[in-house]
Amino acid sequence: MWFVFALLSAVFAALTSILAKIGIAGVNSNLATAIRTMVVLVMAWGMVFLTNTQGGIAAISKKSWLFLIL
Residue 33: what are its φ and ψ, rounded to 5°? Predict the structure, then answer.
């Protein structure tokens, strides 16, 4: 089963690269990077709220915050 997941991961990584190359045509690279980063940010927070783990933010230590930010 792990082989299937690894294969799918490789396929989707390749698709991401191909779609990014097509999508960036004629767009400033900094703007394109910012847009893709926003999509990842929205998806990541969506997973946090979907799994109902947003309550764990208050439990993160100052040291962990420092290293997460760095």
Answer: -65, -40
Q: Which residue has the tokens 């990541």?
A: 44
pLDDT in tens, 29-55: 889 889 889 999 999 999 999 999 999
> Under a CB-based contact definition with an 8 Å cutoff, are residues 23 and 32 in contact?
yes
Distance CA 42, CA 67 (A): 22
Using an 8 Å Cβ cutoff, are 33 and 24 in contact? no
CA quadruple 46, 50, 56, 60: dihedral sign: negative
Q: What is the mean pLDDT of residues 59-68?
A: 94
- Give Cα separations from 3 to 6, 8, 16 (angstroms): 5, 9, 20
**Helix H or strand E encompassing 50:** helix 29-50
